[in-house]
C-alpha cells in the first residue's frame, strides 16, 4: 500500500467507522457466531503475494463482523463498558502512525511529557491528593490495564515492606496481602504472578452492602502478625466489578497507616465518577492511599488501553521495576531530570497513549465529561427505582453510580434463562454475577452514546422477556 | 466531536500521516528538545469546555512534534526498529473504532478466532515446529511485548517445575533461572517481578561471538542441582539486543530436555529473519523449545504493540494464569471448545491486535515481507564489510542479520563523542552498547522505508563526522 492508496483506504476506514457508529444498533449486541464458524471461512494458508486493501476489508465485513460483540453499541450493558469516542480514535490513529516508543524520555520526549502533564490534570479533575502529582514525591503513569496497575502496586508494596530484599533473595513466603471477597480477580492473579502464593492472600468478608469489613481486616492483620507473618498490602475498591460496592476507604486507610501496610485503591470504572464533585464522597480517605488506579478506557471515552496509575511515593515502584542495561543508557536519563516510564511499568516498550487521553479531555472539556457521567448515573438510578418498585423484581445491592444488580423473584434458574434469552435476542447485552450466592443480572450504563431511552428500552425488554418466560 | 466532524477530522489526520511519512526525513531523527521545554508550553489546567479538533491538532504540530523522536524515519538506526506500515495503521484504526474486548472468546469471537488463525499462519511463515499450532497441544497468542512473553514463559516454567505449588504456597527461593550475560534485561525484570530473586538468576558467560556457552550452562545447572536448587528455565536468544548474537539453541535445547528445564527462545527482532528460508538456520533446535516469541512490531511492519508468543504445551501457561470469577463465567468458555486469551497473558483486557497483523500479512504477502527482510540484511552486511575494510573502524561482532556493532579505533571517549555528534546533528539516529567492556556504536536497519541509499548515507555521515572530530 503506497501513500496515495493509504489516503484513499484511510478515508474509507474513517467513513466506515462513522457509518458503523451511526448504525451499530442494527447488529445483535452479543455476537451470535458459533465456535469455529469464523475460522472455517478464512484461508488455511497466508497469501504468497500482496493483496489490495478492498479485498481484505470486504473479508472483514463479510467474515469477521458477524463475530464482533458490539462494545460500542448504546445497548451494551454488560461487564464494565470499554467505551471510546471519535477524538480518542483519532488519537490512537495518530499514535499508530507516529509509531514512537515511550520507554525512555529520550526515545520520544513528547510522549513522556504529555503523559506526565495529562496525569497531573487528572489529579485536579478527580480531586485526588496532591501527592499524586508529578511535582510531588509521587506521580502518575498510563498502564495497559487495572490488572497491570494492581501488579505494579503489589510489587512496589513488597519492595517497601522488604526493603528490596525480595528482589535479591526472592519471596520468602511470609508476605500477606488483603482483599475483600469482592475485589477484582486481577489481584489474585497478581499474587500468583509475584510468587506470593494464594495461601498468603486473605479475602476479608464484606458487609450487607458488599463492602469490605474494616473490623475483620484489622483482626486478620493482627492475627497474621501474631503468627509471624508480614502484612504488606491491602487492595480496596471504589466500585467493585460484581456490584459496584465502595469499600470503607477512610477506615481501611487508617488501619494501613497504623500497620505500615501499602494501600492500593482500585477505582477502575467508578473513579470516573469523581469527575463530578458530588460523587467524590466515594473517594473519601484517598489522601491516605499509597496508590490509586482508574481506567479512562472504561468510562471516560478513551479507547482501550488506558489505565491511569498514581503512586504517592515513586521510590519503591522504581526500585521494584528498574533495570538498566548498557544499551538503554543515555544522557537525559543519567541527568536525573527526566522520567523514564519503563521503570514505572511491567513491560519495557510503550505506545504514545497520552495522545488519545489528551484529545478526549480537550474534546469533551471537563464540563462535557461531567455531564455524561452525571447522566449515566441518573439514568441507572432511575432504573434501579423502577426495578425496586416492580413486584416481580428486586435490586440486590446499593446503586451508588451507574450499575444495578437485580433479579426476578423466580429464582436462579429463571434468571439464568432470562439472561440467556435477552442476550440471544441480541437487542441488548447484559451479564450476571452472584451476590450472597444468588444469581443476578447486572446492568451497567456507560457507553458513550447511551441515552435515557436506551436504558428505559432495556427495562421494557427485560420485563417483556420475563413475562414471556413466565408464560411458558 | 460528532460523526460528521469525525469524518472531516479523520480525513485530515489520514492526510497528515501520509504527508508525514513522505516528509519525515526533514525532521531531526532524535528530538532535540530539552527537559521541561514541552510542558512549559502546555496549559497548567485542563479545559473546562470542549475545544474544536483543529485547535488540538495545531498544538500537536506546534508543541509536541518537536518532541517526537522519529522512529518511522528511514534514518532511524537506533535500538531495534519499531516499524509500522500503512496497512498496520489502518488495522489499528479499525480496532480502536470497534473498541472490542478480546479477554474472552464470547466478548468478541472474531477477535480471538482471527488471532488464533494468524498465529497459525505465522508458524508456517517462520517454519516453526507444528507443536506451536493451535491444533496441537500448544498455540500462539499476541502479547504487548517480548517482556510480557518472557514473564509469561517464566510463570509457565515455574508452574511446571513446581506442579503448581508456587501458586498456592509462594516461591520458596530454590528455583533457578538461566540466561546469558547478553540476554535482554526483561528477563531480569521478570525474575524480580515473579519473586524469584536476582541471586537465583545465573548469567552464563558467552563465547567470542557473544553467544551463550552451552558447556558453562550445563556445568552451572549441575552445580545448582548439587546444591539442592531447582533449575527451572533457560532463556536463549536469537539475535541479542546488544550485538544480535545467536545462542547455540541445539546444544542448549538438548541440555534443557535432559534436565527437564523449560527453554524459552527470545527472537524479538530477529525471528522475522526466519521468513526467508535461508535464514532459518538461526532457528535450528527450535523444535525442542517450550516457548518462543518474536515481535512483528519490531521488524515486520506492524505497529507496536504486537508480540507473538508461542508455547508447545499450553497446560502450564493456563494453570499459571487462570482465575475465574463468577462475573466472567459464560457458556462458551464452559463448553471447552473456545480459547479465552485472558488466561494466556498477564492482564485481563486485550485489544483486537490480530486485525493489524492480518492486514500486514495480506498487504505485503509472504513474498513481499521476505523481500524487505532480505534487503535489510543485505544492506547491513554490505555496510559491515565496508566498515571492516576501513582503516579507522572495526566491526566488533558477527553480523548475522541487520545489525552491526562497530567502533572507531580511537577508543571509548572518541566513539562516545562521535555518537553524540551524529545524533545531535539529527540526520541519523544510532545508539550504542558495550562489548567486552568496549564502547561501540550499533546500527540496525529495519525501518519500513529504509533503502540501501539511507544505509550508505549513514556510513558517509559517520566517516565525515569521525574525520571532523579527529581534526579538532
Could you explain the architecture of this structure?
The structure is a homodimer of 472-residue chains. The first copy, chain A, starts with a helix and ends with a helix. With 472 residues, chain A is α/β, with parallel strands linked by helices. Chain A is globular and about 60 Å long. In chain A, helix 5 packs across helix 7 (185-193). The longest helix of chain A is centred in the C-terminal third of the chain and has 35 residues, at 354-388. The mean pLDDT of chain A is 96. Chain A has 3 domains: 3-70, dopa decarboxylase, N-terminal domain (Up-down Bundle), CATH 1.20.1340; 100-351, Type I PLP-dependent aspartate aminotransferase-like (Major domain) (Aspartate Aminotransferase, domain 2), CATH 3.40.640.10; 365-471, Aspartate Aminotransferase, domain 1. Chain A has 15 helices and 11 strands.
Q: Give the strand tally of chain A.
A: 11
The CATH class label of the largest domain in chain A is: Alpha Beta
**Strands ordered across the widest β-sheet of chain A:** 1-7-6-5-4-2-3
Query: How many structural domains are formed by the residues of chain A?
Result: 3
Average pLDDT across residues of chain A? Answer: 96
* CATH architectural group of the largest domain in chain A: 3-Layer(aba) Sandwich
Gross geometry of chain A: globular
Properties at a glance:
homodimer, 472 residues, alpha/beta, dopa decarboxylase, N-terminal domain, Aspartate Aminotransferase, domain 2, Aspartate Aminotransferase, domain 1, 3 domains, 7-stranded mixed sheet, 4-stranded antiparallel sheet, 11 strands
